[in-house]
Amino acid sequence: MRMNQHLLTIDDLRVNFKTYGGEVQAVRGVSFYVDKGETVAIVGESGCGKSVTAQAIMGLIPHPPGKIVGGRVVFEGAEISHLPKKELLGIRGTQIGMVFQDPMTALNPTMKVGTQIVEGFVRSHQVSREEARKRSIEMLSLVGIPDPEKRIDQYPHQFSGGMRQRVVIAIALACQPKLVIADEPTTALDVTIQAQILDLLKRLQEEQALSVVIITHDLGVVAEIAHRMVVMYAGMVVETGTVEDVFANPRHPYTWGLMRSLPRLDEGEKQRLIPIEGSPPDLFHPPVGCPFAARCDFAMEICEQQMPVTDEFGRGHQAACWLHDPRAPRIEELVAAGRQGV
Description:
The chain is α/β, with parallel strands linked by helices. It has a domain at 257-336. It is built from 13 helices and 12 strands. The chain has an 8-stranded mixed β-sheet with strand order 6-7-8-3-9-10-12-11, with helices on both faces. Strands 2-1-4-5 form a 4-stranded antiparallel β-sheet, with helices on one face. The longest helix is centred in the middle third of the chain and has 18 residues, at 191-208.
């Protein structure tokens, strides 16, 4: 891999699903990159296309009804979005691992957890089952499973939710992938266990120089673990940048809305949380203009008529919003006219 080459590049990715009601444009021109050793968070509300993007990277889009209709997924300089299934299997699990949202559906309930980890070692490293079992015990210990020599012979139902998620992480890391995609890895867990899993992912990422794509709707998770973030809305990227830049100076009204809807512990007085009113657009017939225009407090006529260009604000911080056009009125003027403040 050349020095200036990203580990993973998503370029204008488009994914559609054919249904009885029509064709859903679930992912509409998504572009971002992941470098070696960094964690990138994909953020957005349910239905924005986060998980579909992850499935497209892994080659897990069910066809039919789903299909990648445009764009590229490039991993280590090679285009992988249209590889034959056999070649894709050589990458999936070995070069790119995945941690799924619900460990009970990710794990086979009829197989011991050790058997499920051993299979990965045998397939990818071509070692004996005895050696694979030894490495599996080491992997369970690495992810914080107590007494791994005993627990390797237990079934998924004998583990708590947090421990099952640790097993899923062990399986994802068993083949020593260069990239791990974690799809809402803490959603099904209570708050205490969430913190433990995030600490585990962060530690493993740092110790093994892993690249991680974490998919979440929780900005607290983003602040805890990510280096950069990609904000998605209605199948599109509306803002991207380092976590520090986006949190300190969000540039898109949707990102402002996400920030306003979070409780703040640093405020002296209690502040009322401000929801984002309205609903996402119909992706059977997406709007021709900005997808957030119907819910935006600062929407102008041009917003509904034409898709905004993406503006650059330095250090890779980008946002697609007409408010940054030199011809647009200043935010202060819109607030003075009665619009919702940032």
